[in-house]
Amino acid sequence: ISDDISIFNNFMIKENGYISGDLRYQSGSTLIYNTNGIHNRSNEWNTGEDIYIPDNLIITGNTKLDIGTNPPEGLLQIHGNLKIQEESILIANGSTPLIQPMNIMGDITIDNAKYFMG
After folding, report:
1. Which residues face 13 on adjacent strands?
2. Greatest pairwise CA separation for the chain in angstroms
3. Which pTM was predicted?
4. Of 48, 38, 45, whose CA–CA distance to 12 is shortest?
5. How many whole angstroms separate alpha carbon 66 and alpha carbon 96?
6. Radius of gyration (Cα) for the chain, nearest Å?
């Protein structure tokens, strides 16, 4: 996807998926990573204005999400809940360590995930 798009419900990134534009998240939106491999966070989860920040984040399907790659210019946030499931991993200290904290305003659920690294 190369154009800016508004997300009203769920937006799922699957294997080899990426965007080059910006996503604009509406209230109640969820960003889902389901890549069955390594995925480097990019434009799909941005910093700055609230509209670029998803309400909820789900990492599933054996996804290894590296949030330090493509270092964000500001604080990474989730307005709601973070759920890591199905042997997935959140990596904050990967090839490029995240140098600032991540702000999760809701609950964190780790369900059958191998690791939670942060």
Report:
1. 33
2. 35
3. 0.91
4. 45
5. 9
6. 13
